[in-house]
């Protein structure tokens, strides 16, 4: 295996930036916790209200219900990849290259299969 060029501070910065981007995505989908920003559902509700059409409302509701599993899958993948990456970085920094390679292989397998349950820690 090649030499790793990883520092704990650089990794922490990547996780911090990724977390901030994830929060932006959550806000876009669900709205802000203080209610100042509407999520997709709020925008869809406004569209139904403005059009005053039950047909459009039903179509929008069906569209978002249909996409919900895909959106959940995206969040699961992000969480699983971050958890797996964290584990790999910890091992790399500790000098456990072989274990890091195994975790990186597990990340790839999870990305291919869509099953991230093995990467998501049960306790933090």
Mean pLDDT equals: 79
Number of strands: 0
What class, by secondary structure content?
Answer: mainly alpha
User: Rounded to an integer, what's the Rg over CA atoms?
Assistant: 20 Å
**Uncertain stretches:** none
How many angstroms does the end-to-end distance come to? 29 Å
Report the principal-axis shape.
elongated
H and E order: HHHH
Q: Please estimate the helix content.
A: over 70%
Please summarize the sheet with the most strands.
Answer: none
Q: Could you walk me through the main structural features you see in this protein, from its secondary elements to its overall organization?
A:
With 124 residues, the protein is mainly alpha-helical. 74% of the residues lie in helices and 0% in strands. It has helices spanning 8-30, 40-51, 54-93, 97-113. Helix 1 packs antiparallel against helix 3 (54-93). The two termini are 29 Å apart. The mean pLDDT is 79.
Could you write a compact summary of the structure shown?
The chain has 124 residues and is mainly α. The chain has 4 helices and no strands. Helix content is 74%, strand content 0%.
Task: Give structural attributes.
124 residues, mainly alpha, 4 helices
SSE diagram, text form:
Blueprint lengths: L7 H23 L9 H12 L2 H40 L3 H17 L11
Helix pairs in contact: 1-3, 2-3, 3-4
């Amino acid at each position: 295996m090649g030499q790793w060029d990883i520092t704990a501070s650089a990794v922490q910065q990547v996780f911090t930036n990724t977390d901030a981007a994830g929060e932006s995505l959550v806000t876009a989908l669900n709205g802000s916790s203080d209610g100042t920003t509407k999520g997709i559902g709020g925008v869809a509700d406004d569209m139904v209200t403005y059009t005053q059409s039950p047909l459009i409302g039903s179509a929008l509701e069906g569209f978002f219900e249909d996409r919900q599993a895909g959106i959940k899958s995206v969040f699961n993948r992000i969480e699983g990849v971050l958890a797996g990456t964290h584990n790999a970085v910890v091992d790399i920094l500790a000098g456990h290259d072989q274990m890091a390679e195994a975790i990186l292989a597990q990340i790839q397998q999870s990305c291919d299969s869509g099953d991230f349950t093995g990467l998501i820690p049960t306790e933090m």
